[in-house]
Amino acid sequence: MKLFPFIILLAIVVKPLTAGGAEPLRAGIVGCDTSHVIAFTKLINAPEATGPRAGVEVVVAFPGGSPDIPSSADRVGPYTDELRGMGLEIVDSISALLEKCDVVLLESVDGRTHLGQFQQLAVGKPVFIDKPAAANLADVIAIFQLAEQTNTPCFSSSALRYCAAVTKLANDPAVGNVTGCSVASPFETESHHIDLAWYGVHGVEAIYAMMRPGCEMVSRVDGANATLVTGRWGDGRIATWRGLKSHGDYAFTAFGDKGMAFDRGFSGYEPLVDEICTFFATRRAPVTAEETIEMFAFMEAADASLQRDGQLTSTKEMIDRAKQKITERSADK
């Protein structure tokens, strides 16, 4: 049988001008080792994209990758190839990427890399930092300190913060003012990160979306099928997070001064991507540095509490300890 060669044509769809006649903001991706890079690019670059997504186009990516984390090493190649097939230019350095973009999606799955990557990215262009913001609290604080010093707008968030079930409960008139909540979500750890940062951060983001900042004390106990973290806010409100070790559902209960309500499930990435694109256009972060820092203090206090056999642990203690680490790092340079 005679074989004929195939000619494969790659059609690159270029976004039209925005409604105001401006060119879309050019977005660059740092870190191609997470499925988020594919999902976000498809949502942003869709020719039919409307609203804030219509004003952004993902055009370039730097692969990155962490050889000592299998879920990074095994995925960075295939995801990079897929992005190349979607029309993105692939570059070999962050400096090369910055020459070709206006805004940045810091997507590296390994939170350890974020501080070093942000040190290269902190040039004034808006940066979204995907979860986890970093591998530990000290790095998170250092990132936001650098952002302030360089006038680089940035924020970090999980998609769970903007999940339909969470936003509905946080603003439900039948619930009223939220006086407490309970969240259950999947729990996996990675040895280079504080326990909750790798995957538990999704559930913690949901808690903060409903409760807002103000947690002062945290305790944690661990079991065969779950780890349970309780936070006590300064005004007496209480939130709990159940990290599920054996299955992957999401469940949310809000308690309020008018009633209580329950919902479950994950509604997709669209709401988060809309927030990111709005941030790129306005340079105004929808989640403050202070809130993200407190979230990581909550998670680091959970680890400390477990090491102390469930003892209540102060978030302020964790922040003070992290700032001391940063001071010691600076002294060692």
Automatic annotation (TrEMBL):
InterPro entries (alphabetical): FA58C (IPR000421), Gfo/Idh/MocA_oxidrdct_glycsds (IPR050463), NAD(P)-bd_dom_sf (IPR036291)
Keywords: Signal
Signal sequence region: 1-21
Domain called F5/8 type C: residue spans: 16-32
UniProt cross-references to SUPFAM superfamilies, sorted A to Z: NAD(P)-binding Rossmann-fold domains (SSF51735)
Protein name per the record: F5/8 type C domain-containing protein
Native organism: Lacipirellula limnantheis
Lineage, opening ranks: Bacteria, Pseudomonadati, Planctomycetota, Planctomycetia, Pirellulales
